[in-house]
Amino acid sequence: MHYISFKNLNKKQYLEIFKYCFLFKKKTIKLKNINVGILFLLPSTRTKSSFLISCKKMGINIIDILIKDTQQNRGEKKADTYKIFSLYFDIIITRGIKNYKLFSNKIINALDYNEHPTQIINDLFTIIELKGKIDVNITWVGRCNNVFKSLYYAYKIFNFNLKVFSIKKEIKNFKIKNQKNIYKACKNADFVMTDTWNSMGEKKKKKYKKLKIKKKYINKSTYFMHCLPLYRGKEIEKNVLKNENCIIWKQAKNKIISSQAILYFFLKIK
Fold first, then answer.
1. pLDDT of residue 200
2. I want to staple 186 with a disulfide (CB 3.0 to 4.6 A). Which of 110, 118, 217, 237 is the partner?
3. Between the CA atoms of 179, 180, 184 and 189, what dihedral angle is there, to the nearest 10 degrees?
4. Burial (0-12, 13-18, 19+ Cβ within 10 Å), 241
5. Beta bridge partner(s), residue 62
């Protein structure tokens, strides 16, 4: 199967993945005769590194596929290249792919222009690890980008409490109320989440000052999350990172755990 959107799995399946996350926190499960390709057409720091490390830990053969080194540079059709990849690999982890239909094997979308489902799996695991449950109060402050879209689908599946402070013209595409006051939106949140203002591929770098998170919005009982990369002084005040409840580094480190759980889950299913 192709895992492209957070909608592709149901609640029971996600709970199984979270169960594997806690399992991989305690030990690593070794797998034999598994070949995984990682095909990233967009930049990555944490996601790519975490999947590479996860495969090494699990004994999986992984190849970092660089398109510049393939025959596509000499005019080979994309469909032919991807057909070969489908024949060679049990799973391909992708980033920035637009036409998933060209692959006949299992695909894990590690970010495209529509969604970032593996990020939200990781973030929800981090939330469960801290709170012991998924039924929490989450406030999203930021653009309605690919990360938010996956979070929104998670909200639909798990029915946790989600408040959003975003851009009016962007939030109208989602069936959720846009909060009028950023301070009130964050006030009773267990977790405040955000992302960079401008996504990869956006040509115009706009500023959205009203979305800037200040330290005073994060109280002593609220955790602050950011999927990174972050830009100090833009989407957040610099001193937000000094807050003891800022868990962005824990969140990032957990990607090595959630990546193993994701791979294990998708290698098990047919």
1. 78
2. 217
3. 20
4. middle
5. 36
Predicted local confidence at residue 45, as pLDDT:
97
Residues 118 and 108: their CA atoms lie apart, in Å, by 8
Give domain limits for the chain.
Answer: 2-115+255-268, 119-253
CATH pick for 119-253 out of 3.40.50.1370, 3.40.30.10, 2.60.200.30, 3.40.50.1820: 3.40.50.1370
Angle at 56 between CA 52 and CA 60, to 5 degrees: 100
Classified as helix, coil or strand, 95 is strand
Helix axes 11-26, 255-268, angle to 10 degrees: 120
% of the chain at pLDDT higher than 90? 95
Q: What is the pLDDT of residue 270?
A: 73
The pTM for the full model equals: 0.97
Architecture of domain 2-115+255-268 in this structure: 3-Layer(aba) Sandwich (3.40)
Residue 138 and residue 191 in contact, taking contact as beta carbons nearer than 8 Å: yes
What mean pLDDT do residues 22-49 have? 97
